[in-house]
Amino acid sequence: MMEKIVCESYEEACCTAADFFAQQLKRKPDSVLGLATGSTPIGLYEEFVSRYQAGEMDFSRARAFNLDEYHPIEATHPQSYKTFMDEHLFSKVNFAQTRIPNGEAPDPNIECAKYSADLEAAGGLDMLLLGIGHNGHVGFNEPASSYPLEAYKVDLTGETLEANSRFFGENEIQPITALTMGIGQIFAAKHILLLICGASKVEITKKLFEGKLHTDIPACFLLLHPNVTLVIDRAANGG
Ligand code: PGA
Asked: Of all residues in the chain, what percent carry a pLDDT higher than 70?
């Protein structure tokens, strides 16, 4: 069952999503949280930081697992997801532990196996934040004819490369592959918080909810999950 909460603005959507995470941490301070990158979660992470500073959220016993990372990429590269998470969240709040797939790992398959083992050892995800790509990807699970259940190395689609090229400078090499959490690991999260914001997501949102399971839209798997909360702003919801 998917609960749907329509918010008036992006800011309201971020506050609403932050409320769910705050409640989760109150209920279970040692929660394992799945986190996402991209432009959508930036306002949510700002909420986390201000609530942490106000003493309203405490991450000191929580562990974070990020969905994905480019590969290969240096951790210190300005466009690595490691850099993104450090800048927006990890350097500003007090997580007990953070884990992002290692974009510097020499063997991506070994790194994916390690990441999967770490996630399993942590007991899986209590709450997972997801955004959605314009092509329906979740994490870096790109549209495909089959979807690995566990973490894997993926070839990014032309659409994703195009969407993310805006972040890379002219002389910077944009990675064309990435490491991502697998669909089975996403699906195993106890509670999924799907945050969709902005008018550019209207089309994919319509397709996602048109009442069919499109196999070329990875996010469609979420329609079968027993505990998903969709927080969407009016712009993405089509007004
Ligand atoms: P965005 O990315 O938040 O920057 O739109 C979402 C995604 O690609 O998953």
From this structure: 100
